[in-house]
Inverse folding.
């Protein structure tokens, strides 16, 4: 979820009206930011649970903490792929932003609902959880409209 929210915020922020649309540049920044956020998040988790152990054990735990952040990066990939496709097919910046924000909001709903079902929520509750997750995407859409 965090990677999708991050990608949505970057998608909304990277292109400004009146500026040249640079989808490959934007895709690069979405990917780099997601990877950096994953590294920082994993490192923070590692340091928060840091105990006095052997150096080998600490390095192993750091590696595991960093590896566990792969979903954050994967969650940003739909936005990256959309931006790359926009560059290949020369799509309009406004349309790409609108489609990307809508797609990410739908993904937030879907992932929130599926995860809730997997951990044992009933269908109605799972859909409400998905709706709550999608509300974050809607907030980014509203913020994009207000700010721009």
């Amino acid at each position: 979820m965090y990677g999708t929210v991050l990608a949505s915020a970057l998608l909304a922020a990277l292109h400004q009206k009146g500026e040249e649309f640079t989808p490959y540049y934007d895709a690069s920044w979405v990917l780099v930011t997601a990877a950096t956020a994953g590294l920082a998040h994993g490192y923070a988790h590692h340091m928060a649970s840091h105990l006095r152990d052997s150096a080998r054990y600490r390095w192993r735990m750091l590696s595991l903490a960093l590896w566990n952040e792969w979903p954050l990066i994967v969650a940003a990939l739909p936005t990256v792929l959309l931006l790359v496709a926009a560059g290949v097919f020369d799509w309009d910046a406004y349309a790409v932003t609108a489609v990307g924000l809508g797609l990410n909001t739908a993904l937030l709903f879907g992932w929130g609902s599926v995860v809730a079902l997997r951990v044992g929520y009933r269908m109605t509750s799972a859909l409400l959880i998905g709706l709550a997750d999608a509300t974050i995407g809607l907030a980014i859409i509203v913020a994009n409209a207000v700010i721009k």
Q: What stands out?
A: The mean pLDDT is 94.
